[in-house]
Amino acid sequence: MQDVFNKIIEIVKKNAFEIDDNCVKFSDSNYKSIKFDKKNFHQIKTSDKNQKIAFVDGGSTEILKSSNFSLSLIRIYYSIYENNKRAKSSKKDFYAFTYAKDKDNEIFYETELIGMDTLVPNKDDLLISSFDQTIKQGIVRASISNVANLVRRFSELKMAAEIAESLGENDIIVLDGSLQCTFTNERKYMDNLYAKAMEKKVIVCGLCKTTTLMTDKGNSISNALNKFDIAGRWFYNNIVEINSPEHKAEMAFVKLHELSKYIFRFEIYKEQKEKLNEVVSLLANNCKDSVFVGYPYGLIDADRSGRVSNNEKDMMKTFFSVKFGEDWEKIKENLTSSDAHEILDNIG
């Protein structure tokens, strides 16, 4: 048995330590990878500037689900920090009711937005084929539940555009996630945000909690960059040339605190890429909280405040069951039964 353990240790060490990464691997021809080079590391300098930084995030939870409809609670949150103190924040809740409809002999999903008149996406942008490539997984029809993610993302971008109107020159908007448009119709909301930001001279960027990008050897970007053993806090720029109309960004990777073990993917609107150094320095000032050293506290706050808890979900389900009254038992018959995996997980 010891031979088995030794073999496992040998294989793991070989794949962890002996990989020679050259660049980030992209499958799309609109992305041209640039070879890793130590000279592309830049130390993050201390900034004494005090631009406002707005952080935007959202959350959602599905309250009712049937095979042909889904009711979700959508929550969008933002906070504005000045001198590392929260100066303003706001949270908006509304409901998205998505239902299946026949259109041109195919099943489409249409969504009604209830409870808020502003910040909600255009209804026409939410009519989407159940076989739309941007919401389905694999080759099967997309789950009707997936539409809530699209609604939330569009609403986050609308809120960010509204915030841009109230900010001043060189203030910053930080989205949770990348600047890449991954949903059908998302680009119009992103382009609107860019237009408002350029008009007000506000900087738009995004920080990803995680990234699925790999090197040409299948390694993680963090592992590849850590091999250069750069001390302190830094950003790595000159990763890729992006020529996609759905992704108008300059990409970098950042280590925002010298004690942090985490490296994050960071993007800035490509028309503002000359501001990269300045923005990263200001963002690093927001990354000193012991809750998560090296991650902007503004995004921790936005994630926590934008999240919809399981307790809230259960309360809303109970609330609607009471409101439906005697009709609830009939409605329950239409709701999707518990997933078999969930039942098996709870056995024993």
Work out the number of β strands.
15
- Major beta sheet summary: 11 strands, mixed
| Envelope shape | globular
Order of helices and strands: HEEEEEEEEHEHEEHEEEEHHHHH
Radius of gyration, Cα only, in angstroms? 23 Å
Strand percentage: 25-35%
Helix content: 25-40%
State the distance separating the first and last CA atoms.
Answer: 31 Å
Stretches where pLDDT falls below 50 for ≥5 residues? none
Number of helices: 9
| Strand numbers in spatial order across the main sheet | 3-12-14-15-10-9-4-5-6-7-8
Structural class, by secondary structure, is alpha+beta
Oligomer: single chain
Mean pLDDT: 90
Q: Which key terms come to mind for this protein?
A:
9 helices; 30% helix; two-stranded antiparallel sheet; alpha+beta; eleven-stranded mixed sheet; 15 strands; 348 residues
Care to describe what's here?
The protein has 348 residues and is α+β, with helices and mostly antiparallel strands. The model has no long low-confidence stretch (mean pLDDT 90). The chain is 30% helix and 28% strand. A hairpin with a 2-residue loop joins β6 (85-103) and β7. The longest helix has 20 residues, at 147-166.
